[in-house]
Amino acid sequence: MPIEVKNFINGEWRDSASGESFMSANPADQSEVVGSVSRAGTEDVDLAVGAARAAQKKWRLTPAPKRGEILFRAAETLLRRKDELAELMTREMGKILPEAGGDVQEAIDMAYYMAGEGRRLSGETIPSELTDKDCKSVRVPIGVCAVITPWNFPLAIPAWKIMPALVSGNTVVFKPSSYTPVCASRLVGILHEAGVPAGVVNFVNGSGEETGEYLASHPGIDGLSFTGSTVVGQRLAGICAAMGKKVSCEMGGKNAIIVMDDADLRLALEGALWGGFGTTGQRCTAASRLVVHSSVYNEFLGMFIEAASKMRIGNGLMQKTDVGPLINESQMKKVLDYIEIGKKEGAKLMTGGRRRTEGEHAKGYYIEPTIFSEVEPGMRIAREEIFGPVVSVMKARDLEDAIAIVNGTEYGLVASIYTQDVNNSAIAERELETGIVYVNAPTIGAEIQLPFGGTKRSGFGHEEAGGRGGALDMFTKWKVIYRDFSGSLQKAQIDR
Ligand code: UN1
């Protein structure tokens, strides 16, 4: 039986006004309907925003440590239910069980971290130019925040956004991807049980084009935190900018791993496999480009092809599976189209490239781990985000050449270098034009206690982390207070 998912408005699970619903299916087995979901229309979104506005008045005055304690209780529940949530996630979006566990763990980590931030939401006091005058800055919430999230990290990404929004005193209207509503509803339920008051977190389901866009452009919304494609992010950011709303967008990536001639190739191989094909390449942080020093190019390419062709494709619930299905048919078609584009552009298909439809595979959207060699930086498969298990391998003469290739796209989320040379590492850290750089580790695996975000068309604003440039900067504004207690007209402002 499908799990019934309703919208959650003002502390109650409610059917949508229209009574319409949609289905969420298992990408490993399309015959399994995981959720039957109430589709929110404009009326439901209006109610959700209204509830969030009303609840904001009280929530912002709830002491931040108390807000944090509620998140702590949510963290405890997430931890207790980790296995069950991971299994549900694998059924709803296909990633293999250990990766789903990692996703839940990011949500747990984020909840604990932000629980602590409730006791650290500090501002600054600073000496005044004048006698008998105080100056201080305090963090205040933005107000009502829209949170729009993708399907590839069904719990982690919502947690990156909702936890800091709440601890900062904002109320939230949350619209998850229409491919992962069941996982999202679990998070909402856990927050509610942990003691988040009615109206503080509201939950609406529907497509990005309709529900998402209506929500982002709603006059009752003060800020938007979005993760998804660059096209949609830029569009929503434009709408929000015109309305004076604060926005943070995490968008696409065309991340690369550099393998230098002095690299430990064993480590680099593991990084390339995990970075390229982990989550079936459906991460904004996926390593879809591999830039290899010419003197180890042939050797490394051979190792990479051999290992990739041995990866086991299948249902993510099976212990032996390395690579799960793609999320849906359109995503699968897009990836297959890119494979054709790569062939036409003259890149060499070395392994994979096919949809698997034999036996169990017929039920889902499976594409083999695919490697192209002889890729030139100008080709579309080297520049555009594919979001699937396809890696483009390029050759570099030296470090400078490798860095120029990596920096030569419109994206700038993550880059990685495998090298044993401390100078190569230092140069790469400084010169790579990405928000995140890894040394001797793949492009995936960012931790929640540091800011997460990209440069160029990968996004603006940062997620995760607390006080130092991370999510709290998105979800709070500074309020500056000057208090003059001299009791006299201090002219020093004008004549000092
Ligand atoms: C994403 O793909 O949208 O660093 C986020 C990582 C994960 C987050 C990925 N912690 O790969």
Number of strands: 25
Beta content: 15-25%
How far apart are the termini?
76 Å
Question: Helical proportion?
Answer: 25-40%
Largest sheet composition: 7 strands, mixed
Structural class: alpha/beta
Instruction: Give the names of the bound compounds.
Output: 2-aminohexanedioic acid
Q: Low-confidence runs (pLDDT<50, min 5 residues)?
A: none
Question: What's the average pLDDT?
Answer: 96
What is the molecular shape?
A: globular
Total of DSSP H or I helical runs spanning 4+ residues: 16
Strand order of the largest sheet: 15-18-19-14-13-21-22
Give a structural overview.
Strand 21, helix 14 (422-431) and strand 22 form a beta-alpha-beta unit. Helix 3 crosses helix 4 (97-117) and helix 4 (97-117) packs parallel to helix 5 (156-167). The protein has a seven-stranded mixed β-sheet, with helices on both faces. It has a six-stranded mixed β-sheet with strand order 10-9-8-11-12-24, with helices on both faces. The relative contact order is 0.14. It is globular, with a radius of gyration of 24 Å. Helix content is 38%, strand content 23%. The model has no long low-confidence stretch (mean pLDDT 96). The protein is of the alpha/beta class and 496 residues long. The termini are far apart. Bound molecules: 2-aminohexanedioic acid. The site of 2-aminohexanedioic acid (UN1) has 10 residues, from loops.
